[in-house]
Amino acid sequence: MIYRKTAAVLLYFAAVSAFAADSPKLSTEQAKVLESARAAALQYRQLLPDFICTQITHRSTASKNMGAMGAGMASRNPGAMPSGTESSSDIIEEQLTYVGRKEDYEVISVAGRKVKGVTHNEIQGGAISGG
Known about the structure:
Elements: H1 2-22, H2 28-47, E1 51-62, H3 67-76, E2 87-99, E3 102-110, E4 113-114
Antiparallel strand pairs: 1-2, 2-3, 3-4
Helix pairs in contact: 1-2
């Protein structure tokens, strides 16, 4: 999660930087602001304190025959799903530990059932992501 946010910030500033290269020359003030933002983005991860928190993920799944359009409708409005399609949702509870600039996830429960020995990447039954 932290890496995704850091990556998003860095990508944003890379895009701004690329745009700035094709744009008319920046004013001195604009260049200072851009450089300050770049430095903050690069230092973001080093400045985060160590922490432990609970991460709750609400996840919806749909049958393969729904297609991308149907799955998108199901996530926004379950009542709008085409008839004959199956969908489900669950909640994943994980303990997120961020220590020494490293993330670690321990799965606590999936769909209200306690689990042991299951890693974030081993969760079955739907899409997952990792950073």
